[in-house]
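Progress narrative, Year 2. Work on Integrin beta from Carassius auratus advanced from sequence curation to structure prediction during this period.
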Amino acid sequence: MGIVSLYIVLHFWLGTVGGTCSQFNSVSCDECLQLGPQCAWCTLQNFTDSFSIDERCDTPEALLQKGCSGEFVQFPVTKVKILKDQGLGKSAGHTNVSYIAPQKMRLQLRPGNQLTFQIQVQQPEDHPVDIYYLMDLSASMFDDLKMIKDLGSTLSKEMAKLTSKFRLGFGSFVEKPVLPFIKITPEELANPCRSVDFECLPTFGYRHLLSLTSSTDKFNEIISKQQVSANIDVPECGFDAIMQAAVCGDRIGWRNDSMKLLVFVSDADSHFGMDSKMSGIVVPNDGECHLDDNNEYSMTAHLEYPTLGQLVDKLVENNILLIFAVTDGQRQNYENYASLIPGATVGVLASDSRNILELIMNSYKELRSEIDLEVLGNTEDLQLSFTALCQDGAIITGHKTCSNVKAGDVVSFNVTIELKGCLAGPRKFSLRPVGFQDALEIELESQCVCDCHQTPEANSTFCSGGRGALECGACVCNPGFVGPKCECTEDQEQISDCRAHEGAEMCGGLGECFCGQCVCHPSSFGRVYGPYCECDNFSCLRFRGELCGGHGECDCGECVCQSGWMGESCNCSTSNSSCMSLDGSICSGRGKCVCGKCECTVPGASGERCQRCPTCGDICSLPRSCVECHLKAKDPLDECAVKCNSIHATVSNSTDFEESRAASCTLQNKDYCILSFSLVDSDHGSIIYNPKLYDCPEPPNALLIALAVCMSVLIIGITLIVISKFLISVHDRKEVAKFEAEKAKAKWQSDTNPLFRSSTSTFKNVTYKSAGQQKSDIS
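Result:
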């Protein structure tokens, strides 16, 4: 065995920027230390001015830069003192052998700091073993009694291979002998098995029958004398028996340096907690030993069954490992119980307990092959983390268990402790391997008090001639005096000057009243100021995470915007450049520029600059009717109100307007006159400046036009007639000429017509009746 190695790893979180501790307004050294492990206090007199006592609290580096030499800096560091470390096992050469090293240590730790140390644990080679066999003797276990009659001898023989210091004990249990768990007729009380024609013992709760002994013969003899009993319900009072076997250590005979195994054997579930209320038992189990002179549990009919929490506390307190040997039907129930009990294991028991020896040996070897570290005591406000360094070289972060450990093997655990806050006093707790008697005892103190407070200088001349005590470089004033150097008296008139009104908190709760004036506390967020500390430069509105949008300064809760910006959070630009359309108009004449963005006011208008409007005309056409009405009407205010109000427009003859924001409009009306005006958008609508009408044509001369039209018609008519006569004349002449030409070409005499034939007439005399016909030619 080597000498135990111990190493300390300290983690200090140091501020990366000087002055981080001074932002928290500490007025004493103790308050400063509690701000964090990076903070220190300067005790040098006159280190700060009268109203900056909090500047004494800062990181050590920052204090040195401010001129506070190291001898005046209060900066407690983590301290570790090993109180007992005698080495591991027999090789250490000590009379009292310990299997954990070190055995005792004292830690002084600042809140927020982490401390890492290492402990070593050795698996003993010839460790004393105490096994207490706790058996269910209800009627269903009748065949099991016969099977274990030689258990003492066989178990002792097997255990002798593993340890030379083995002892056995025996106890039994059935059920609370009260209704409704048993029948209470005299016959049934005397023989609970009467109904099945079998002789058995009266029902009992728990009996301790054999204290731990190395004599296997006594164990076998006790087993041979046992008889079963009976009860009505299935669950038994097994937890009552476990509790008494755990707390009655003197009667059972547990050794302080032994591995304590309690073998619980049953084929039924166990009652716990408030199950006994069914029998009218309402007094909670007190976790005390109640074995009478006959070694029977005397309070079985008076105290409730113990709860699982009570069992866990007593088993851990007395370092007892529980082995549940139960039948397969009860395995799941007892596995659930074992998951809540440190070091507990579950084995499946044969119906007649034929495998009990194998079960005990396997459970023992399983327990011996594992080293599991447990924390005992009050660890509130502590954060513990573990890293297991096992014998096979495995490093398991976040675990405190090593498996497959053999006798003589040494394993290590790195333990990291972090203190969350100051402790009221020293805190004691311990780290112990499950099943071991040895433990590391730890005494922890929080470093939240400065040593300089232990030696104050009473009535110091530094404190205005003895008006207070000088502690850690600062004055602690006597009653009736206030101020950094106790220079002011604490009378009513001076205090009232520090209140904004009657009943108000002094200096608004954000400062101290010194000599009738408020001295505001510094803040990590910024500056607090004002006659009553009512103002600050950090409580203004933010825009996109920046105070006053990054375009202004916060003054007493209100943003004072830089030039070119406006709004509650200075997030609105006063420039219209981002709203300017391509035609030079603001928001295309269909909206207004708000915070550098267009808000379209014309229905149907959309787009970044309101440039899209399917239902709109151009920006100059919309106010046309209003402008024309204003120019033509005798009383524009009355006659044009409807037309102008419908488009949210007003007409102004003023020439005083910002031309860069105006849209110049030039239109032609129905009379062909030129209509011009300037259009400017405002928050309340459009404003029309300088409406003008010019270049209108002269009206036509109606008489002249009529005369001209008549003369034109007459001239056109005469012209048409002349042309018509001329054309007819030309046509006639052409026809005559044609006729004359054809006449000249004829070849016959003009007085004889070769085509002429004389006419012939035929008459019929209707009065002539001869057969022949009479013809007459008349020429």
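The CA atoms of residues 353 and 515 lie 89 Å apart. Confidence is low (pLDDT under 50) at residues 1-19, 771-779.
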